[in-house]
From TrEMBL:
Record-annotated ABC transporter domain positions: 7-237
Keyword presence, Nucleotide-binding: yes
Pfam family, one: ABC_tran
GO MF assignments: ATP binding; ATP hydrolysis activity
Protein's UniProt name: ABC-2 type transport system ATP-binding protein
Keyword annotations from UniProtKB, A to Z: ATP-binding, Nucleotide-binding, Transport
Organism from which the protein derives: Marinococcus luteus
Length: 257
């Protein structure tokens, strides 16, 4: 028996002006699980996550957040999730702390709980001293970290993160990975996309490899490595390259004019 299903993806598709960016997708992510969405540029990772976060309307199919349809019950679905885009939009004229206060008021958080939680996260991310500064003065990595802090203080049951480690220095990246581990241990389903296969290998309970909008395979990093051991080398990167290159030779989706 596995943990409860946090995200269910059912025949989810997306077309942009007749071109299919995401072909019918089906998979699940469970509570307590870190799921890595791996794929080359343009594979459909962001499009899929934006649909599941309720930010982009699917062309067909549906996604469920703890059983709530993103199409039919978008408010209930969104209340349970957080989405961290690759370039988070933050408010330049707010300080980091004002931003967190704003999130706390939107989600009506109990100040006896969120303030302590926020302070702990700020400390973990070395943001305590800069929390009083306007966010327009923050570096890219600091913006990523304050946006993640904002996402975590309302304790979502599902968190989607688009390329969360890009732009982080090694310490921040390590802290982020530790925090994602703890977040999953507390019961949250963590769903993130990455190109960084070593990060995925270390961190993910399961990965899904997506290429040209099709999910090629899902499984634990260990199982994928074992399954492909006779063809690929020993790393997840070898498996990823082999799978996406193999699919590449099956021909392009459209003709180059
Ligand atoms: N608004 C849009 N209009 C038209 N095509 C789009 C739009 N958004 C995405 N696409 C196309 O959909 C496909 C998937 O894009 P997506 O951004 O989901 O890929 P990705 O896997 O997140 O890539 P990357 O790793 O480069 O961020 C690409 O071919 C992209 O050009």
């Amino acid at each position: 028996m596995h943990d409860s299903t946090a995200v269910e993806v059912n025949q989810l598709t997306k077309q942009f002006k007749g071109a299919t960016a995401v072909h019918p997708l089906n998979f699940e992510v469970h509570a307590h699980e870190i799921f890595g969405f791996l794929g080359p540029n343009g594979a459909g990772k962001t499009t899929t996550m934006r649909m599941l976060a309720g930010l982009l309307e699917p062309s067909s199919g549906d996604g469920y957040i703890h059983g709530k349809s993103i199409k039919n019950h978008p408010l209930e679905a969104k209340q349970q999730l957080a989405y961290l885009p690759d370039k988070p939009d933050i408010y330049p004229k707010l300080t980091g702390w004002e931003f967190l206060q704003f999130i706390a008021s939107v989600f009506k958080l109990d100040k006896n709980i969120w303030i302590e939680h926020a302070k702990r996260l700020l400390h973990r991310f070395d943001l305590t001293e800069s929390a009083g500064r306007l966010m327009e003065t923050y570096s890219h990595g600091m913006k990523q970290k304050i946006a993640l802090t904002g996402a975590l203080i309302h304790q979502p049951s599902v968190i989607f993160l688009d390329e969360p480690t890009v732009g982080l220095d090694p310490k921040s990246s390590r802290d982020l990975r530790a925090i994602l581990r703890e977040t999953a241990a507390d019961g949250t389903a963590v769903f993130f996309s990455t190109h960084m296969l070593d990060v995925a290998d270390q961190l993910c309970d399961r990965v899904g490899i997506i290429h040209r909008g099709r999910l090629l395979q899902t499984g634990t990093p260990e199982a994928l490595k074992q399954e492909h051991a006779s063809h690929a080398g020993g790393s997840l990167e070898d498996v990823f390259l082999r799978m996406t290159e193999q699919h590449e030779t099956e021909g392009p989706e459209g003709e180059v004019p």
